[in-house]
UniProtKB/TrEMBL annotation:
The keyword Iron-sulfur does not apply. Keywords: Ligase, Lipid metabolism. One of its GO terms (cellular component) is endoplasmic reticulum membrane. It catalyses: tetracosanoate + ATP + CoA = tetracosanoyl-CoA + AMP + diphosphate; a very long-chain fatty acid + ATP + CoA = a very long-chain fatty acyl-CoA + AMP + diphosphate. Belongs to the ATP-dependent AMP-binding enzyme family. GO terms for molecular function: long-chain fatty acid-CoA ligase activity. This is Long-chain-fatty-acid--CoA ligase. Residues 48-125, 147-235 form the AMP-dependent synthetase/ligase domain. The lineage of its organism: Eukaryota, Metazoa, Chordata, Craniata, Vertebrata. The keyword Mitochondrion does not apply.
Length: 241
């Protein structure tokens, strides 16, 4: 969808040795790698573990967009270790494989992709997985019996559709950025806004006045406020509310 914005910059990117990969139907100009063709041709069989396991967990796994807590917006480096640690995010806040997680955050940020998507994948039972007794990456990460939670992806957040979505999809967990909760409490009251199965809201930036209004209006939803930076190495959890 964004290739039109990148295309005018292709000559300068190629001069700097920057590779451009695009997902979607082409055709694309020379020098652009069309990922869809490669995915279609790829085998569904996994390569041996020693092929894809990184030599060093602190090596770069990916670069992800950060809006600039530590300066201007930039591509922040995320290591393999930090990516793997995100597997435990939802377990840390009390979610389980029975939960249905509603995610409407942009997937180019760490909150939506690494905490949201990878966090849903990582929910499981510790230990007992056949052949996984040594854990991931040579024992650095405890072994998991992968179970995963259901993730409901919403392309764009809609305060007016939120509770209808929750009822239709059986949502039990909502991952927010604080302003999303403000949008919800600013909506006109509706008869069905307390008729839902939401039990847990987790995210960042929820102000105290919105926190109180959210629980008073929508019912006894447990809220776990967290804070971390894509470029940082410390994360905070408000477990006590």
């Amino acid at each position: 969808d964004l290739f039109g914005s990148v295309e005018p910059l292709l000559p300068s990117l190629q001069e700097d040795g920057v590779a451009v990969w695009v997902l979607g139907a082409g055709p694309y100009p020379p020098g652009v790698v069309a990922l869809q063709e490669l995915l279609d041709a790829a085998s569904e069989e996994l390569e041996p573990e020693d092929v894809w396991e990184p030599e060093d967990m602190n090596d770069t796994c990916l670069y992800i967009f950060t809006s600039g807590t530590t300066g201007l917006p930039k591509a922040a480096r995320v290591s393999h270790l930090k990516s793997i640690m995100c597997l435990s995010f939802y377990e840390l806040v009390g979610a389980s494989s029975r939960d249905v997680v509603y995610l409407a955050l942009p997937l180019y940020h760490m909150a939506g992709s690494l905490l949201g998507i990878i966090g849903c994948i990582g929910i499981g039972e510790r230990g007992g997985a056949p052949g996984a007794s040594r854990g991931c990456f040579g024992g650095l990460i405890p072994a998991l019996r992968p179970a995963g939670a259901t993730c409901v992806l919403k392309e764009k957040f809609s305060a007016s559709q939120f509770w209808d979505d929750c009822r239709a999809e059986g949502v039990t967990v909502f991952q927010y950025i604080g302003e999303l909760c403000r949008y919800l409490v600013n909506q006109p009251q509706s008869p069905g806004e307390r008729q839902h199965g939401l039990r847990l809201a987790v995210g960042s930036g929820l102000r105290p006045d919105v926190w109180r209004s959210f629980q008073q209006r929508f019912g006894p939803v447990r809220i776990v406020e967290t804070y971390g930076m894509s470029e940082g190495n410390v994360t905070l959890f408000n477990y006590t509310g």
